[in-house]
Write a structure and sequence with these properties.
GO terms for molecular function: transmembrane transporter activity. It comes from Sus scrofa (Pig). Keywords: Membrane, Transmembrane, Transmembrane helix. The protein has 290 residues and is mainly α. It has 14 helices and two strands. Strands 1-2 form a two-stranded antiparallel sheet. It is globular, with a radius of gyration of 23 Å. The termini are far apart.
């Protein structure tokens, strides 16, 4: 830019699509790049002094990531035209070939390392979600157990792998994002709306971290509006996401509503749990610390 390479920034929005129907997909794709922002909330129990550490970590990390993304995109648009970006199968590779020459061969390695780091954080955070849900009785008991030596929620980590393998059969990243983003942003919007509800229904509840009410209200409205709009703009992908969400109904009935389970069901469940305990070498958390 300092050398005057600003030709790609002239009329940067000249070919834009102004239809509001494309807003949901643009929102989903854009927010996917920031998808790790809520993972820190899943591991609150692992954080020392969370009342101070978590808000500080979220603010600092978001500032760093946003700055990095903006500078990266500025570098892309300084080097590559919008038409070339649309035709490129891998923008980072095209950028490195244009700017770095033979060194571009190392870019896929750096991308793989970046994906590995992202996967590591995702597994660490999402496994805690299964672990706590099981501890609260919302999922099979085995998922709330930890390894006798490593003290890690091994079953909750392992269960992520078959789910991930199933998702790989979609074959198309963009279709997968469309399927799953509907459920993700629907429940994020509802969860934030629940915070607003509790602010008024339980005003005396201990709240170590508070923000002005318009922030969660605006965020919740945006999420729910985009989700509702996606029902109209892309009903097929949204319908698939809705069907995936409905698969949680049997689990909810089985573990939450169905209290009077028959003896044969309890015996079978206990037998499966004990077998998995032996294979995985896991025990309930309270037994591991005795």
């Amino acid at each position: 830019l300092t050398a005057g390479q600003t030709q790609h920034f002239k009329d940067a929005f000249s070919g834009r699509n102004e239809s509001i129907m494309g807003l949901p997909l643009a929102f989903y794709y854009g927010m996917y790049a920031y998808a790790g922002w809520f993972y820190l909330n899943f591991v609150t129990e692992e954080v020392e002094n969370p009342e101070k550490t978590i808000p500080l970590a979220i603010c600092i990390s978001m500032a760093i990531v946003t700055t990095g993304y903006v500078l990266t995109n500025v570098a892309y648009f300084t080097t590559i035209s919008a038409e070339e970006l649309l035709l490129s199968k891998a923008v980072a590779v095209t950028f490195s070939e244009r700017l770095l020459g033979n060194f571009s061969l190392a870019v896929p390695i750096f991308v793989a390392l970046s994906c590995f780091g992202s996967m590591n954080g995702g597994v660490f955070a999402v496994s805690r979600l299964f672990y706590v849900a099981s501890r609260e009785g919302h999922l099979p008991e085995i998922l709330s157990m930890i390894h006798i030596r490593k003290h890690t929620p091994l079953p909750a980590v392992i269960v992520l792998h078959p789910l991930t393998m199933i998702m790989l059969f979609s074959g198309d990243l963009y279709s997968l994002l469309n399927f799953l983003s509907f459920a993700r942003w629907l429940f994020i919007g509802l969860a934030v709306a629940g915070l607003i509800y509790l602010r008024y229904k339980r005003p005396d509840m201990h709240r170590p971290f508070k923000v002005p009410i318009f922030i969660p209200a605006l965020f919740s409205f945006t999420c729910l509006f985009v989700v509702a709009l996606s029902l109209y703009s892309d009903p097929f992908s949204t319908g698939i996401g809705f069907i995936i969400t409905l698969t949680g109904v049997p689990a909810y009935y089985l573990f939450i509503i169905w209290d009077k389970k028959p003896k044969w069901f309890r015996r079978m469940s206990d037998r499966i749990t004990r077998t998995l305990q032996i294979i995985l070498e896991v025990v309930p958390e309270e037994d591991c610390h005795k």
